[in-house]
Amino acid sequence: MSSFSGKVAVITGGGGVLCSTMAKALSEQGAKIAILDLKAETAEKVAAEISEQGGNAIGVACNVLDIDSLKAAHEKVLELLGPCDILINGAGGNHPKGTTSKNHLFPEDLNATEEGLKTFFDLDPEGIKFVFDLNFIGTLLPTQVFAKDMVGREGSSIINVSSMNAFRPLTKIPAYSGAKAAISNFTQWLAVHFSKVGIRVNALAPGFFLTEQNRTLLTNTDGSLTDRGNTILSHTPMGRFGTPDDLTGTLLWLCGEGSAFVTGVVIPIDGGFSAFSGV
Ligand code: NAD
């Protein structure tokens, strides 16, 4: 019997690249899995894949920004699997409207008519708000809905998903950087707040994983690296992008008994990116 046998793990964004791998890893350790995703089809597809491998999983359509949708998902999880023991707040991401087109501003950019140029001054507040909402409010609301199940139940764990951006902002993506910094800070806040009720709260900070969200930023259509992709790899001492399985060991450790005295940490899983000064 693994220490995850019979535990219920709720994974928001569970239809996505990184979180579907996390869901499968927890299922292999005996946890019952609820895949919550905005896209019903992907949630159900991942749940079906887990069930085909002998796991116990359900897919639930859910918007992490809509409290009624979260409450309905919670009812379904309670009815079909039981109260939540592990919550992974995985839904998140960036938006082009919160992204500048260049790394730096130059004086001539202010009056330039270049197609596609988007400076800091052109950023759309709605785009910024979208990114803050998805990453921060989209972590806070599911925690409000599912953490109540965990109060006073030993072995409960919340895992948030931060990013390299939280340590030092990456160029071009101020909204995503700020929102993930907020996630790291919130992880510490929640860890302290929940410390008397038996819920540990920690975060993963993935480095650079080649996924659908960033494929066009990091690679060209022929598969070669973009300048940004090259810069990232040259700043990653281990010399490669992460693969979703690289998150598994740390995830299982943070959710399990081996980390019983660990709460409020944000762990980089980045091939050394955050340790390297660049020289
Ligand atoms: P992904 O796009 O493959 O998965 C995200 C999932 O979230 C999608 O299935 C999407 O449908 C779902 N989603 C989006 N909005 C939602 C909403 N409002 N309600 C419910 N579900 C919603 O992304 P990924 O690359 O697997 O990233 C997963 C997490 O890891 C995100 O928080 C991301 O910011 C973070 N992250 C990714 C990387 C990377 O290199 N890919 C690095 C650091 C952090």
Structural features, described:
This protein has 279 residues and is α/β, with parallel strands linked by helices. It has a single domain (8-100, 128-212, 243-275), classed as NAD(P)-binding Rossmann-like Domain (Rossmann fold, 3-Layer(aba) Sandwich), CATH 3.40.50. Helices cover 36% and strands 14% of the residues. The protein is built from 8 helices and 7 strands; from the N terminus they run E-H-E-H-E-H-E-H-E-H-E-H-H-H-E. It has helices at 17-28, 40-52, 67-80, 125-146, 174-193, 215-218, 227-234, 248-255; strands spanning 8-12, 32-37, 57-61, 86-89, 156-161, 199-206, 266-269. A 7-stranded parallel sheet has the order 3-2-1-4-5-6-7, with helices on both faces. Strand 5, helix 5 (174-193) and strand 6 (199-206) form a beta-alpha-beta unit. Helix 3 packs parallel to helix 4 (125-146) and helix 4 (125-146) runs parallel beside helix 5. The longest helix is centred in the middle third of the chain and has 22 residues, at 125-146. The protein is globular and about 60 Å long. Residues 12-13, 15-19, 37-39, 42, 62-65, 90-93, 134, 138, 161, 163, 206, 208-209, 211-214 line the site of nicotinamide-adenine-dinucleotide.
**What's the end-to-end separation, in Å?**
47 Å
Question: What count of helical segments does DSSP give?
Answer: 8
Total strands: the figure is 7
What is the fourth-level CATH superfamily? Answer: NAD(P)-binding Rossmann-like Domain
EC number: 1.1.1.131
InterPro entries: NAD(P)-bd_dom_sf (IPR036291), Sc_DH/Rdtase_CS (IPR020904), SDR_fam (IPR002347)
GO molecular function: mannuronate reductase activity
Family: Belongs to the short-chain dehydrogenases/reductases (SDR) family.
